[in-house]
Specification:
Layout: H1 3-23, H2 37-41, H3 53-64, H4 86-97, H5 109-125, E1 141-145, H6 148-167, H7 175-186, E2 189-194, H8 200-208, E3 211-215, H9 227-239, E4 243-250, H10 262-272, E5 281-285, E6 310-314, H11 315-318, E7 326-330, H12 333-340, H13 350-354, H14 373-407, E8 413-420, E9 423-428, H15 435-452, E10 458-462, E11 465-470, H16 479-499
Parallel strand pairs: 2-3, 2-4, 4-5, 5-6
Antiparallel strand pairs: 1-7, 6-7, 8-9, 9-11, 10-11
Helix pairs in contact: 4-14, 5-14, 6-8, 6-12, 9-10, 14-16, 15-16
The structure holds pyridoxal-5'-phosphate (PLP).
Pyridoxal-5'-phosphate binds near residues 147, 148, 198, 200 and 252.
Protein name: Pyridoxal phosphate-dependent transferase
Keywords: Transferase
Organism: Hypoxylon rubiginosum
């Protein structure tokens, strides 16, 4: 494809994408292809000779789109959103045009410099404490990773190495003895999360070769981790000779959007593991709900973060930046670089040697990196902080509308949790039914709605209750859609109850 052909193909593709967005609502939101559908309609072998773009593009509608679940549809209400915007798409396009591995500052200085600037902009816009700024008092700073899972695995490794380094500092004069001591202590390390923490933390612990324990959460506490339960688990672990060194606290848990008791966690840790060697590294995972911190009415939540060590939010979930883009901040970047720096002869360059530049490869697991900050810069400039606030508030209002509709039909539904941020979790009700019967009824309605295909929701089980999650935070959702979602649910619920 030469540049003239690229121009024609790109114009035609953009026309196609605009049409896709303008008509997305007409499509069945969730794909209903059979597993293996694609192998039946694609050739067995790669083409020997190149094909014309027009022929390739034709196959998008016929072969690719049937296998797409339309996350950008206003009828997509499942999990958390994966937001999209035109400025972010343009950012992806330019980033692809300038593509490079960008592991060091000198690879493309702007890739590093723009990232540091937009991460400082966002830290201020989210009202994170100044310790998370690259210019802040504790040598903090932000970096963009692909996903929250990657962010959590990375900070957990930094936490593990910090803990072990500090615990064996007295052996610094004898490297062999220190290596042995580190190997022994490592087998005792425990990473903590709550029972509602995303599995990303358990996976990070598996990758880092440490144990994982879940702090129980209870319906009476709204499924959030409390300081009291954390204390109980830490003391139990210590009594067994184990060493808790890391904790994921969640701001907006995946199933119900609970906010862990951050103040309680901070005060328990200052009692049991005060700052210094032996402290517990606290990472706040705000993968979805962190977007709400753009609004001043949520910013009181960040006050306690200066007592924690790191924080992440996925801009690709609810803040108009296309996947992938997980923003991570640390209070002290040296813990990342001490755990993750490696030197290679081919990397030597005068800028790195000068110590004046950031080489973000030392803040992450991969070596090369994408120019993700460009799409963030485009989005923040196009919408402005006020535009981003309006975006988040609109969805929170939709959730309030939905929850009010649910409460208006106590004969059919009951709210389990919420609305929290833009998430409402609810179940079906039937007088005199046992928990198993209630669960079966909710499941029947859930399956019927998903099968029907007009809307797509996800489900969960909290405290033994099977429940439906409604999250109207896809970019294109308007109030009339929320009312339609509710009508579809009422229709399915009335039908199921009439048969029950
Ligand atoms: N943390 C929370 C609270 C989440 O809800 C999710 C996914 O929804 C994740 C982490 C994992 O996100 P990622 O896909 O970016 O790894």
């Amino acid at each position: 494809m030469d540049s003239k052909q690229f121009r024609e193909a790109a114009i035609s593709s953009i026309d196609d994408i605009v049409k896709y967005y303008d008509t997305i609502e007409e499509r069945r939101v969730v794909s209903n292809v059979e597993p293996g559908y694609l192998r039946k309609i694609l050739p067995e072998e790669a083409p020997q000779n190149g094909e014309a773009w027009a022929d390739i593009q034709k196959d998008l509608e016929a072969k690719i789109l049937p296998g797409i679940t339309h996350w950008q549809s206003p009828n997509f209400l499942a999990w958390f959103p994966s937001s999209s915007s035109f400025p972010a798409m343009l950012g992806e396009m330019y980033s692809a045009a300038f593509t490079g591995a960008a592991f060091n500052w000198i690879c493309s200085p702007v890739v590093t410099e723009l990232e540091t600037i937009v991460m400082d902009w966002l830290a201020k816009a989210f009202a994170l404490p100044p310790c998370y700024l690259s210019t802040g008092p504790t040598l903090g700073g932000g970096v963009i990773h692909g996903t929250a899972s990657e962010a959590i695995a990375t900070v957990l490794v930094a936490a593990r190495d910090k803990y072990l380094r500090e615990a064996t500092a007295h052996l610094a004069h004898d490297e062999d003895a220190r290596e042995d001591a580190i190997a022994e202590r490592r087998s005792k390390l425990v990473a903590l999360g709550s029972a509602a923490t995303h599995t990303a933390t358990k996976k990070a612990a598996m990758i880092a070769g440490v144990r994982f324990r879940a702090v129980p959460v209870h319906a009476a506490d709204g499924y959030r981790m409390t300081g009291a339960e954390l204390k109980r688990v830490i003391l139990e672990l210590r009594a067994r000779g184990l060493e808790p060194f890391y904790l994921t606290a969640t701001l907006g848990t995946t199933d119900t959007c609970a906010i862990d008791d951050m103040e309680g966690i901070a005060s328990v840790l200052s009692e049991l593991a005060p700052p210094g060697p032996g402290e517990v590294w606290v990472h706040v995972d705000a993968a979805y709900a962190g977007a709400a911190l753009i609004c001043p009415e949520y910013q009181h939540l960040t006050k306690v973060f200066d007592r924690f060590h790191s924080y992440n939010t996925n801009l690709h979930k609810w803040l108009l930046v296309n996947f992938d883009c997980s923003a991570v901040w640390v209070r002290d970047r040296r813990h990342l670089t001490e755990a993750l720096s490696v030197s290679l002869a081919i990397l030597q360059n005068q800028h790195t040697d000068s110590g004046l530049v950031t080489d973000y490869r030392d803040w992450q697991i991969p070596f090369g990196r994408r120019f993700r900050s460009l799409k963030v810069w485009f989005v923040v400039r196009t919408y402005g902080v006020e535009g981003l606030r309006a975006h988040v508030r609109k969805h929170i209002k939709h959730a309030e509308t939905f929850a009010a509709l649910v409460k208006g039909r106590p004969d059919l539904f009951e709210i389990v949790t919420g609305p929290r941020f833009a998430l409402t979790v609810f179940k079906l009700v039937k007088d005199g039914a046992t928990l198993d019967e209630q669960n079966a009824l909710t499941k029947t309605v859930y399956n019927a709605v998903v099968e029907d295909g007009r809307i797509f929701l996800s489900s969960t089980v909290v405290g033994g209750v099977f429940a439906i999650r409604h999250n109207p935070a896809a970019v294109l959702v308007e109030e009339h859609h929320v009312r339609k979602h509710f009508e579809i649910l009422v229709e399915a619920a009335e039908k199921a109850l009439s048969k029950a």
